[in-house]
Amino acid sequence: MDFSLSNEQRSLVNSFKRFAIEYLTVENIRQWQHDEGLPDKVRRAFVEEYYRHPQLAGFEDRSGSLLAQALINEEMCRVAGASLPFASDIMHVRILQEFAAASDKARPLIEEYRTSGKLAFSLAVTEPAAGSDTMGMKTKVTRCSNRLFLDGRKTFVENGEYAPQIMVAALDETNMQATERPHLSFWLVPLDTNGIEAYPIDKIGQKILPFADLSFSQVELDPSWRLDDTGMAGFPRLFHVLEISRTLVCAQSLGMAQAALEDAVHHAQQREAFGQAIGDFQQIEQLLVDMEINVRAMRALVYEAAWAFDASCSDKRLAVALMKRFVPQAACDVASRAMQILGGRGYTTHERASWIWQDCRGNQIADGTDQIMVRIASPLLKEKYQ
Questions:
Q1: Given this model, what pLDDT does residue 62 score?
Q2: Does domain 7-118 have CATH number 2.170.16.10?
Q3: 245: CB partners within 8 A, 6+ apart
Protein backbone atom coordinates (compact mmCIF):
# COMPACT_ATOMS: atom_id res chain seq x y z
CA MET A 1 0.00 0.00 0.00
CA ASP A 2 1.39 3.39 -1.05
CA PHE A 3 0.96 6.09 1.60
CA SER A 4 3.03 8.72 -0.23
CA LEU A 5 1.57 11.81 -1.86
CA SER A 6 0.97 11.79 -5.61
CA ASN A 7 3.18 13.86 -7.90
CA GLU A 8 0.35 16.39 -8.24
CA GLN A 9 -0.05 16.65 -4.47
CA ARG A 10 3.71 17.05 -3.94
CA SER A 11 3.82 19.80 -6.55
CA LEU A 12 0.92 21.55 -4.84
CA VAL A 13 2.58 21.36 -1.41
CA ASN A 14 5.86 22.65 -2.84
CA SER A 15 4.10 25.65 -4.38
CA PHE A 16 2.77 26.70 -0.99
CA LYS A 17 6.04 25.86 0.70
CA ARG A 18 7.69 28.47 -1.54
CA PHE A 19 4.93 30.95 -0.69
CA ALA A 20 5.36 30.26 3.02
CA ILE A 21 9.15 30.56 2.98
CA GLU A 22 8.88 33.92 1.24
CA TYR A 23 6.19 35.46 3.42
CA LEU A 24 5.73 33.48 6.65
CA THR A 25 9.06 34.18 8.31
CA VAL A 26 9.48 34.16 12.09
CA GLU A 27 9.95 37.94 12.09
CA ASN A 28 6.79 38.49 10.06
CA ILE A 29 4.75 36.14 12.22
CA ARG A 30 5.83 38.01 15.37
CA GLN A 31 4.83 41.32 13.80
CA TRP A 32 1.46 40.01 12.59
CA GLN A 33 0.70 38.55 16.01
CA HIS A 34 1.26 42.03 17.41
CA ASP A 35 -0.84 43.60 14.64
CA GLU A 36 -3.55 40.90 14.95
CA GLY A 37 -3.74 40.39 11.21
CA LEU A 38 -1.91 39.95 7.93
CA PRO A 39 -0.91 42.72 5.49
CA ASP A 40 -3.07 43.05 2.39
CA LYS A 41 -0.18 42.14 0.08
CA VAL A 42 0.25 38.76 1.80
CA ARG A 43 -3.45 37.98 1.49
CA ARG A 44 -3.38 38.92 -2.19
CA ALA A 45 -0.30 36.77 -2.78
CA PHE A 46 -2.03 33.80 -1.15
CA VAL A 47 -5.18 34.26 -3.23
CA GLU A 48 -3.17 34.53 -6.46
CA GLU A 49 -1.38 31.27 -5.68
CA TYR A 50 -4.56 29.57 -4.46
CA TYR A 51 -6.58 30.25 -7.60
CA ARG A 52 -3.81 28.92 -9.79
CA HIS A 53 -4.77 25.41 -8.68
CA PRO A 54 -8.21 24.08 -9.71
CA GLN A 55 -7.96 21.19 -7.22
CA LEU A 56 -8.01 23.84 -4.47
CA ALA A 57 -10.37 26.48 -5.76
CA GLY A 58 -12.85 24.23 -7.52
CA PHE A 59 -15.36 25.96 -9.73
CA GLU A 60 -18.00 28.63 -9.29
CA ASP A 61 -20.60 26.27 -7.84
CA ARG A 62 -18.38 23.40 -6.71
CA SER A 63 -15.71 23.37 -4.02
CA GLY A 64 -12.21 22.03 -4.43
CA SER A 65 -10.68 19.00 -2.73
CA LEU A 66 -10.67 19.17 1.06
CA LEU A 67 -7.60 16.91 1.12
CA ALA A 68 -5.72 19.33 -1.13
CA GLN A 69 -6.82 22.23 1.08
CA ALA A 70 -5.68 20.34 4.18
CA LEU A 71 -2.27 19.64 2.64
CA ILE A 72 -1.49 23.27 1.94
CA ASN A 73 -2.70 24.39 5.37
CA GLU A 74 -0.48 21.79 7.01
CA GLU A 75 2.55 22.99 5.06
CA MET A 76 1.98 26.70 5.62
CA CYS A 77 1.51 26.21 9.37
CA ARG A 78 4.61 24.00 9.49
CA VAL A 79 6.69 26.83 8.04
CA ALA A 80 4.96 29.55 10.08
CA GLY A 81 4.68 27.70 13.38
CA ALA A 82 1.41 29.55 14.04
CA SER A 83 -2.30 29.55 13.23
CA LEU A 84 -3.09 31.39 10.00
CA PRO A 85 -6.33 32.89 8.65
CA PHE A 86 -6.20 30.97 5.38
CA ALA A 87 -8.11 27.95 6.73
CA SER A 88 -10.99 30.24 7.68
CA ASP A 89 -10.83 31.91 4.27
CA ILE A 90 -11.09 28.54 2.54
CA MET A 91 -14.00 27.48 4.72
CA HIS A 92 -15.86 30.74 4.10
CA VAL A 93 -15.41 30.44 0.33
CA ARG A 94 -16.69 26.86 0.51
CA ILE A 95 -19.75 28.16 2.33
CA LEU A 96 -20.41 30.55 -0.52
CA GLN A 97 -19.96 27.77 -3.06
CA GLU A 98 -21.93 25.09 -1.22
CA PHE A 99 -24.50 27.06 0.80
CA ALA A 100 -25.34 29.92 -1.46
CA ALA A 101 -24.55 28.56 -4.91
CA ALA A 102 -28.09 29.33 -5.98
CA SER A 103 -27.89 32.89 -4.68
CA ASP A 104 -26.75 35.87 -6.70
CA LYS A 105 -25.05 37.16 -3.55
CA ALA A 106 -22.36 34.48 -3.67
CA ARG A 107 -20.63 35.37 -6.93
CA PRO A 108 -19.74 39.00 -6.10
CA LEU A 109 -18.33 37.95 -2.72
CA ILE A 110 -16.13 35.27 -4.30
CA GLU A 111 -14.94 37.69 -6.98
CA GLU A 112 -14.12 40.31 -4.37
CA TYR A 113 -12.03 37.76 -2.48
CA ARG A 114 -10.20 36.74 -5.65
CA THR A 115 -9.42 40.38 -6.41
CA SER A 116 -8.52 41.78 -2.99
CA GLY A 117 -7.69 38.77 -0.84
CA LYS A 118 -10.18 40.04 1.73
CA LEU A 119 -13.34 38.19 2.67
CA ALA A 120 -16.41 40.39 2.65
CA PHE A 121 -18.11 38.52 5.49
CA SER A 122 -17.60 36.62 8.75
CA LEU A 123 -19.52 33.58 9.94
CA ALA A 124 -21.41 33.96 13.22
CA VAL A 125 -22.59 30.64 14.68
CA THR A 126 -21.22 30.15 18.22
CA GLU A 127 -23.17 31.70 21.12
CA PRO A 128 -22.25 32.30 24.78
CA ALA A 129 -24.56 29.47 25.89
CA ALA A 130 -24.45 27.41 22.68
CA GLY A 131 -20.93 26.64 21.55
CA SER A 132 -20.50 22.97 20.69
CA ASP A 133 -24.24 22.50 21.32
CA THR A 134 -25.38 24.22 18.14
CA MET A 135 -28.88 22.85 18.58
CA GLY A 136 -29.13 25.05 21.68
CA MET A 137 -28.87 28.21 19.59
CA LYS A 138 -31.02 31.14 20.81
CA THR A 139 -30.43 33.84 18.18
CA LYS A 140 -33.69 34.14 16.29
CA VAL A 141 -35.56 35.90 13.52
CA THR A 142 -39.12 37.03 14.26
CA ARG A 143 -41.82 38.86 12.36
CA CYS A 144 -43.67 41.91 13.66
CA SER A 145 -46.09 43.97 11.55
CA ASN A 146 -44.74 42.27 8.44
CA ARG A 147 -41.16 43.29 9.32
CA LEU A 148 -38.30 40.91 10.15
CA PHE A 149 -36.11 41.34 13.22
CA LEU A 150 -32.93 39.59 14.40
CA ASP A 151 -32.13 39.27 18.11
CA GLY A 152 -29.39 37.41 19.96
CA ARG A 153 -25.67 37.19 20.66
CA LYS A 154 -22.76 35.52 18.91
CA THR A 155 -19.23 35.00 20.16
CA PHE A 156 -15.82 34.07 18.76
CA VAL A 157 -16.68 35.60 15.40
CA GLU A 158 -13.45 35.83 13.42
CA ASN A 159 -12.98 39.36 12.03
CA GLY A 160 -16.31 40.21 13.61
CA GLU A 161 -15.25 43.81 14.18
CA TYR A 162 -13.96 44.38 10.67
CA ALA A 163 -15.87 42.32 8.12
CA PRO A 164 -18.37 44.47 6.20
CA GLN A 165 -21.01 41.74 6.41
CA ILE A 166 -21.86 38.99 8.91
CA MET A 167 -23.32 35.65 7.88
CA VAL A 168 -25.56 34.92 10.85
CA ALA A 169 -27.05 31.53 11.65
CA ALA A 170 -30.39 32.08 13.38
CA LEU A 171 -33.56 30.21 14.26
CA ASP A 172 -36.37 31.30 11.97
CA GLU A 173 -39.62 31.68 13.91
CA THR A 174 -41.45 33.40 11.09
CA ASN A 175 -42.85 30.34 9.35
CA MET A 176 -43.55 27.40 11.67
CA GLN A 177 -46.34 25.50 13.35
CA ALA A 178 -46.73 25.65 17.13
CA THR A 179 -45.37 22.12 17.56
CA GLU A 180 -42.38 22.52 15.24
CA ARG A 181 -38.78 23.29 16.07
CA PRO A 182 -37.74 26.56 14.37
CA HIS A 183 -35.82 26.17 11.13
CA LEU A 184 -32.19 27.27 10.97
CA SER A 185 -31.67 30.09 8.50
CA PHE A 186 -28.65 32.04 7.25
CA TRP A 187 -28.60 35.79 6.71
CA LEU A 188 -25.94 38.06 5.23
CA VAL A 189 -26.28 41.20 7.35
CA PRO A 190 -24.24 44.41 6.88
CA LEU A 191 -22.18 45.09 10.01
CA ASP A 192 -23.21 48.76 10.07
CA THR A 193 -26.92 47.91 10.39
CA ASN A 194 -28.62 49.58 13.35
CA GLY A 195 -28.74 47.34 16.42
CA ILE A 196 -25.40 45.52 15.90
CA GLU A 197 -22.54 46.01 18.36
CA ALA A 198 -19.10 44.36 18.27
CA TYR A 199 -16.60 43.86 21.10
CA PRO A 200 -13.05 42.45 20.69
CA ILE A 201 -12.02 39.25 22.50
CA ASP A 202 -8.57 39.07 24.09
CA LYS A 203 -7.14 35.56 23.70
CA ILE A 204 -3.93 33.91 24.94
CA GLY A 205 -3.14 32.50 21.49
CA GLN A 206 -4.04 32.62 17.80
CA LYS A 207 -3.15 36.30 17.90
CA ILE A 208 -3.14 36.67 14.12
CA LEU A 209 -6.86 35.81 14.13
CA PRO A 210 -8.94 38.63 15.68
CA PHE A 211 -12.23 37.50 17.25
CA ALA A 212 -15.21 39.46 18.52
CA ASP A 213 -18.49 39.19 20.42
CA LEU A 214 -21.51 40.45 18.49
CA SER A 215 -24.89 41.47 19.83
CA PHE A 216 -28.03 41.87 17.73
CA SER A 217 -30.87 43.90 19.21
CA GLN A 218 -33.99 44.38 17.10
CA VAL A 219 -31.91 44.38 13.91
CA GLU A 220 -34.35 44.89 11.06
CA LEU A 221 -33.65 42.47 8.21
CA ASP A 222 -34.21 42.94 4.52
CA PRO A 223 -35.79 39.71 3.17
CA SER A 224 -33.22 39.71 0.35
CA TRP A 225 -30.45 39.18 2.92
CA ARG A 226 -31.58 35.60 3.45
CA LEU A 227 -29.17 33.15 1.83
CA ASP A 228 -31.23 29.99 1.90
CA ASP A 229 -34.78 28.80 1.66
CA THR A 230 -34.11 25.18 2.57
CA GLY A 231 -35.96 25.03 5.87
CA MET A 232 -34.93 22.07 8.02
CA ALA A 233 -31.88 21.46 5.82
CA GLY A 234 -30.27 24.31 7.76
CA PHE A 235 -28.88 22.22 10.63
CA PRO A 236 -27.51 19.41 8.40
CA ARG A 237 -25.83 22.07 6.29
CA LEU A 238 -24.31 23.63 9.39
CA PHE A 239 -22.97 20.24 10.50
CA HIS A 240 -21.53 19.81 7.00
CA VAL A 241 -19.65 23.11 7.31
CA LEU A 242 -18.37 22.20 10.77
CA GLU A 243 -16.84 19.01 9.36
CA ILE A 244 -14.95 21.11 6.81
CA SER A 245 -13.76 23.54 9.47
CA ARG A 246 -12.72 20.76 11.86
CA THR A 247 -10.62 19.14 9.17
CA LEU A 248 -8.83 22.37 8.30
CA VAL A 249 -8.28 23.23 11.98
CA CYS A 250 -6.71 19.81 12.49
CA ALA A 251 -4.54 20.23 9.38
CA GLN A 252 -3.21 23.46 10.89
CA SER A 253 -2.61 21.71 14.23
CA LEU A 254 -0.71 18.97 12.41
CA GLY A 255 1.50 21.49 10.65
CA MET A 256 2.26 23.32 13.88
CA ALA A 257 3.07 20.05 15.67
CA GLN A 258 5.49 19.15 12.88
CA ALA A 259 7.15 22.56 13.33
CA ALA A 260 7.50 22.00 17.10
CA LEU A 261 9.02 18.57 16.49
CA GLU A 262 11.54 19.95 13.99
CA ASP A 263 12.54 22.75 16.38
CA ALA A 264 12.97 20.24 19.21
CA VAL A 265 15.13 17.87 17.13
CA HIS A 266 17.33 20.73 15.96
CA HIS A 267 17.81 22.01 19.52
CA ALA A 268 18.50 18.53 20.89
CA GLN A 269 21.25 18.04 18.32
CA GLN A 270 22.87 21.44 18.93
CA ARG A 271 22.52 21.90 22.69
CA GLU A 272 25.22 20.24 24.78
CA ALA A 273 25.21 19.30 28.46
CA PHE A 274 27.72 17.27 30.42
CA GLY A 275 29.94 17.07 27.36
CA GLN A 276 27.43 15.70 24.85
CA ALA A 277 24.37 16.70 22.81
CA ILE A 278 21.24 16.46 24.93
CA GLY A 279 19.62 14.50 22.09
CA ASP A 280 21.86 11.58 23.06
CA PHE A 281 20.29 11.31 26.51
CA GLN A 282 17.72 8.53 26.71
CA GLN A 283 15.00 10.69 28.28
CA ILE A 284 15.26 13.25 25.47
CA GLU A 285 15.28 10.46 22.89
CA GLN A 286 12.06 9.10 24.38
CA LEU A 287 10.40 12.52 24.20
CA LEU A 288 11.37 12.90 20.55
CA VAL A 289 10.24 9.41 19.58
CA ASP A 290 6.86 9.88 21.27
CA MET A 291 6.48 13.21 19.47
CA GLU A 292 7.14 11.54 16.12
CA ILE A 293 4.56 8.83 16.90
CA ASN A 294 1.97 11.48 17.69
CA VAL A 295 2.69 13.44 14.51
CA ARG A 296 2.41 10.33 12.34
CA ALA A 297 -0.88 9.36 13.97
CA MET A 298 -2.19 12.90 13.52
CA ARG A 299 -1.28 12.90 9.85
CA ALA A 300 -3.01 9.58 9.24
CA LEU A 301 -6.23 10.80 10.87
CA VAL A 302 -6.24 14.16 9.06
CA TYR A 303 -5.60 12.65 5.64
CA GLU A 304 -8.18 9.91 6.17
CA ALA A 305 -10.87 12.37 7.29
CA ALA A 306 -10.23 14.73 4.38
CA TRP A 307 -10.22 11.84 1.89
CA ALA A 308 -13.44 10.42 3.38
CA PHE A 309 -15.09 13.82 3.06
CA ASP A 310 -14.04 14.22 -0.59
CA ALA A 311 -15.21 10.69 -1.39
CA SER A 312 -18.52 11.15 0.52
CA CYS A 313 -17.82 7.97 2.48
CA SER A 314 -20.61 6.72 4.71
CA ASP A 315 -18.43 7.00 7.83
CA LYS A 316 -16.96 10.44 7.10
CA ARG A 317 -18.67 11.93 10.16
CA LEU A 318 -16.98 9.34 12.38
CA ALA A 319 -13.62 9.94 10.70
CA VAL A 320 -13.88 13.69 11.30
CA ALA A 321 -14.96 13.27 14.93
CA LEU A 322 -12.11 10.85 15.72
CA MET A 323 -9.63 13.19 14.05
CA LYS A 324 -10.87 16.24 15.96
CA ARG A 325 -10.87 14.28 19.23
CA PHE A 326 -7.22 13.30 18.86
CA VAL A 327 -5.30 15.80 16.73
CA PRO A 328 -5.44 19.14 18.63
CA GLN A 329 -4.78 17.40 21.94
CA ALA A 330 -1.85 15.46 20.45
CA ALA A 331 -0.51 18.69 18.92
CA CYS A 332 -0.59 20.32 22.37
CA ASP A 333 1.31 17.35 23.76
CA VAL A 334 3.95 17.60 21.01
CA ALA A 335 4.35 21.35 21.62
CA SER A 336 4.58 20.82 25.39
CA ARG A 337 7.33 18.21 24.95
CA ALA A 338 9.16 20.58 22.59
CA MET A 339 9.02 23.27 25.26
CA GLN A 340 10.46 20.79 27.76
CA ILE A 341 13.35 19.90 25.46
CA LEU A 342 14.05 23.58 24.81
CA GLY A 343 14.20 24.19 28.57
CA GLY A 344 13.87 27.77 29.76
CA ARG A 345 13.90 29.04 26.18
CA GLY A 346 10.78 27.03 25.48
CA TYR A 347 8.87 29.02 28.09
CA THR A 348 9.61 32.35 26.40
CA THR A 349 7.66 34.12 23.69
CA HIS A 350 10.77 34.07 21.49
CA GLU A 351 10.43 30.35 20.75
CA ARG A 352 7.79 29.03 18.37
CA ALA A 353 7.00 26.09 20.63
CA SER A 354 5.24 28.40 23.10
CA TRP A 355 3.13 30.01 20.34
CA ILE A 356 2.30 26.59 18.96
CA TRP A 357 1.11 25.30 22.32
CA GLN A 358 -1.15 28.33 22.78
CA ASP A 359 -2.59 28.10 19.27
CA CYS A 360 -3.18 24.34 19.40
CA ARG A 361 -4.76 24.63 22.85
CA GLY A 362 -7.39 26.86 21.32
CA ASN A 363 -8.04 24.26 18.63
CA GLN A 364 -9.06 21.77 21.33
CA ILE A 365 -12.06 24.03 21.88
CA ALA A 366 -12.74 25.48 18.43
CA ASP A 367 -15.47 23.94 16.26
CA GLY A 368 -16.41 21.39 18.92
CA THR A 369 -14.50 20.45 22.05
CA ASP A 370 -12.68 17.16 22.65
CA GLN A 371 -15.60 16.03 24.82
CA ILE A 372 -18.21 16.84 22.16
CA MET A 373 -16.24 14.77 19.65
CA VAL A 374 -16.61 11.78 21.99
CA ARG A 375 -20.36 12.43 22.13
CA ILE A 376 -20.51 12.46 18.32
CA ALA A 377 -18.21 9.48 17.76
CA SER A 378 -19.54 7.10 20.42
CA PRO A 379 -22.98 6.34 18.91
CA LEU A 380 -21.43 6.09 15.44
CA LEU A 381 -18.94 3.53 16.75
CA LYS A 382 -21.70 1.52 18.42
CA GLU A 383 -23.70 1.52 15.19
CA LYS A 384 -20.64 0.49 13.17
CA TYR A 385 -19.82 -2.54 15.33
CA GLN A 386 -23.28 -3.71 16.34
A1: 63
A2: no
A3: 87, 88, 91, 366, 367
